[in-house]
Each structure stands twice: as structure tokens, then as C-alpha cells.
Amino acid sequence: MAVSIGLFYASTTGNTEQIADQIAAQLPERIRLHDIAVEGVSAMVEYTCLILGIPTWDFGELQEDWDEHWDALAALDLGGKRVALFGLGDQLGYGEWFQDAMGLLAQQVRSAGAEVVVPWPIEGYSFEASRALTADGRHFVGLALDEDGQHGETEERLQAWLPQVLAAFDA
Ligand SMILES: Cc1cc2nc3c(=O)[nH]c(=O)nc-3n(C[C@H](O)[C@H](O)[C@H](O)COP(=O)(O)O)c2cc1C
């Protein structure tokens, strides 16, 4: 049987929450949702496969609930876990800090021992700088979504991304 997936997210104005719901609705049998504003991050250790959703706020900063649980996240042992990330940002309004929080989250879970899977190409986005880029500079560390400026792309991006995530988790 396929292992279950924990999807942990936090959201200030509801965009990340809506995407989390959309992802979970695709696989209701497999994905369990956790709002870290309510539950924190400790249940991450119960899963081998994790999807984490984070928006960037305040010029390259963590969303407030992620920020509150940041040290608790660092203290977890995520060794042997596979993590797929999705980030919410606004490339037109905040193009110098686009998706920075997703980059910070990738670093944090790697430090806790996890493997980050499914880099996402930067084609189709326009921004000045991002801390969420991979070493080659041609990918984000996870799926970059922009509900402010590219809402119309979201469904297609999700449909392309989710099968890649499942393949990486099942590999
Ligand atoms: C005050 C403010 C600051 C923001 N700062 C950033 C930023 O630095 N980088 C970025 O990519 N997006 C930034 N955004 C865009 C949000 O990440 C985006 O609106 C996101 O969809 C919000 O997600 P949420 O509704 O789940 O909180 C900012 C938005 C606001 C209103």
C-alpha cells in the first residue's frame, strides 16, 4: 500500500490554505492536512513523505505561523524523509524577494535531515531575485505559485507537479 503523506501549511490571507485544500482533494485517501497555526509541526515525524506549503511575507520573510514554529522545526529529526515544497509569492509586487520563504524552508528541513524533492523550472516566471533557487539557478526548490499575478497558471502547474511528487515519494 502507498504510504500516507502529511501536508503541512500555514496561510495568512488564505491563498496557501486554498492550494493545500486543492492538493488534498486530489488524493483524499493519501494526504492528511495539518494547519501549523493550529497543530504546530511535531506531527511531521509521523510521516515518511511530506508536502510543505509556505507563503513569503514582508519582503522575503517567513509567514508568521511558520516563523513561530521555526525553532521547533529545526529540532525535529527528519532523517530519511522526502519533502516536496510549494510556495506562494507575488513576482510582480515583490520580485526582489520572490518565494524567499520557500528557499528558507528548504534549508531548514535539509538541516533537519530531510531530502527535498522535485525542483521546479523557473521558465514562465519573471522576477529579479529569489532565495528559493537551486544551485544551478534554473529551478526553484519546489513549486512556485503566484495567486496574485498568475492565478490562471495554478491549476496547470498543480496538475504537472503532483504526479512528479508522487513519483518521487514512491521511488
Ligand atoms: C505585505 C505583503 C508582503 C509580501 N511579501 C512578499 C515577498 O517578500 N515575496 C513574495 O514572493 N511574495 C510576497 N507577498 C505575496 C504573498 O506571498 C502572496 O500574496 C501569498 O499568496 C499570500 O499567501 P497566504 O494568503 O497564504 O498568506 C507579500 C504580500 C503582502 C501583502
Automatic annotation (TrEMBL):
Keywords: Electron transport, Flavoprotein, FMN, Transport
Keyword Transport listed: yes
Domain Flavodoxin-like positions: 5-166
Cofactor list: FMN
Extent of the signal sequence: none
One Pfam family this sequence matches: Flavodoxin_1
PANTHER family: FLAVODOXIN 2
Family: Belongs to the flavodoxin family.
Main function: Low-potential electron donor to a number of redox enzymes.
NCBIfam families: flav_long, PRK09267.1-5
Record's protein name: Flavodoxin
Species in which this protein is naturally found: Marinobacterium weihaiense
